[in-house]
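Researcher: Next entry in the queue.
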Amino acid sequence: MATPTVSNGFENSIFFYYLVRIIIGIAALVIAYYLGDFVAKLINKAAHVTGKSLRAPNTTRTLVKSLFVFAAIMVIIGEFNINLWPLLTSLGVAGIIIGLALQTPLSNFFSGLMVIITDAVNEGDAVDINGMSGTVREVKFNHTIIDTWDGKRIHIPNSAVWSSNVTKYWPELSRRIDMPIGVPYSLSPEKMEIIPKLLKKVMDEESLVYKGPLVENNPSSIVSNYVTFDGFGSSSVNFSIHFWVLKKDYFDAQTAIGIDIFREFTKNGVSIPYNQLDVHVDGKIKLGDRLND
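Model: Structure for this entry, 293 residues:
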């Protein structure tokens, strides 16, 4: 339909011409939004059928929906016969003002693209970003959404994610835990000598301590669980045990190891020391005269 130049009846009027296209444009945006969501679900189902799962299903859904909506916007612009180039070149000072006003959103947008492209963070990652720890729920274009350990949900601007140090707690299959252990100075040298052996025995016999490869399907990367001497403390002789655990066993393994060590120490007559202060008094203490009643 050509753009009307005169108003010969309602159907040929400019108002009717643009009304139809506005309705078509709104319908196109709505259809594109839901079609993108439908296609994203199909992609997810197809991945499950092949025995695999998408690494970032929420982010994939956002990307697919955005592509469909962008295509719809391009179609709408074509329907309205809008030439964007003269509009952009005529903005002048107003364009600079708008650009400055959109500086932060645009920075977040392009930072989000870099985060998505480079896999800086992914859905399901346990991370710490600028002191905020939790599990990544979704990476959007402007924000990365994190669910904290205590049930909060935080939206972090992607410019902050891209420019910050990101700590991933589980980059590999397993993770090492370092647990300090103190024993009393009252132990005999012979009994002190068996402490590292007892601690190593506990780690070897505990089923929740991981003893496989650090990298999946790489037998050469077998983890090492070991004991180290940490020095002479103020109230104890200090050792540390270093053992690996799977993500699902992270808390249970620490509890189990603690109970195992306590049981083994009790069996061998080794106590767990606590902070002590020995006071030595030289000379006599003068108590003073007795007060009268």
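Model: The two ends are 116 Å apart (CA to CA).
Researcher: Noted, moving on.
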